[in-house]
Fold this sequence. Notes:
With 484 residues, the chain is of the alpha+beta class. Helix content is 48%, strand content 7%. The protein has 2 domains: 56-146 and 181-279, Lysozyme (Orthogonal Bundle), CATH 1.10.530.10; 300-477.
Amino acid sequence: MLAVLLLAAAAGAGALGGGEESVPVPPAYVPTPPGTTDVEPVEDPLTYDPDRREDFEARAAAGNAHVLYARSPGGAMATAARVAAWRDRVEAAAGEADIDPDMLEALVFLESAGREDAVTPVGLEGAVGLTQILAETATNLLGMRVDLEASARYRQRIARAFRRGQAGRVRELRAARARVDERFDPVKALAGAGRYLRMGKEKFDSEELAFVSYHMGMGNLEGVLAAYGGDERVPYAQVYFDSSPLRHAPAHRRLAALGDDSSNYLWKLHAAREIMRLHREDPEALARRQALQTAKNSAEEVLHPLGSVPVFADPGALREAWDAGTLLALPVDPVRSGLRVDRRMGELARRLEQSPPLYRGLRPEALALALYVAAQVRAIAGDPGSSLTLTSTVRDQRYQDRLAGRNPEATHNYSLHTTGYAFDVLRRYSSREQAVAFQFMLDRLQSLNLIAWVREPAAIHVTVSREAEVLRPLLEAQVLSAAP
């Protein structure tokens, strides 16, 4: 079983009351290599467990948090400060709608970053205001006044006054616009969002499903729930983590067909709620978290902050790690493992008077996760003979510095490759089905907070958490080469 997530979020990530019931989830098994008769199936330790719902929810919040830190206007701390300014009005609207004020506050963080005049690129007919309400939803469902023509005229006048530096005039025009387009009135926008969430809570008998429906839409969510369990009302965590191309495929297809962030919207709300909690209770911890989340283009330094794991300084340190069993060599049989080693891996080794195999290995948990991904991708893509190509695995700092001198994607600073927890997968796939399957696995493992990943020009860079230790039984089914 997965270890309990050691984050403050875990303590506050409980279910948002409702009528959901835990429904047993049958065990799943990791697909075995094609044509093998000597491999006992390994029960998949990442299968959703209803008894550990809060753990899965906390993992999902942590795994989906990076985008909030990386893309919030001005950064997560600045956004949290803007959102906190609306707290009294959020509490009033939440009280009126009988919903959790912390979740409504998180919705404001995620939807508008606390900006009452936020407008999506679609324009005024799209999502607008503090709670990003669509014009059609506002008028047809929520009873709000929305005069699009008048709102557009005020928008132009506001822009002119802003360019001229007329701050007072801008405030006057914004107040006038809020009277003809109530989505720009923060109080009415919060009240409108509250009414929608109250409708969703009544419809689904669940507050968390009401929040899911805010982005997904009630009709879409109803279709997903029906595809998963018919009339059963189960927690969203179960619908999400127990739906895949191989399990509850109809529900998965409905989620995937939405083509946006609807499926993981709830987890981002949980992540925003945690940011707001830290803003109030421990701003120094929030600053540290922001620094780790924005140090790289993924959350890899959250998984392994500098100093938390040894860095292999030179080939000697790397060889000592091999001798100690800290590193394992990559599999030699791609048919069995689903992993192929790029022949250029370790190509700079000769310049350090070393052999390339020294740079063809990973820590056991990282290798186990790579094998897990390969096995699942084969099964999902329906191509048991396909392989993913690894282009880079462990390095030492001397090798890293050499590489950084010729590759702009490499860094002279802290690289997770120098810890043995990172590998790169070539962005060249045997089929579209393999590419789609690989993307699914990246997203799912990120939502389990077991990896951080980023798309580079030629490869997908993956960093593996130490908690992938639960996958180590997969190593027993592989033929591994000897240490270099």
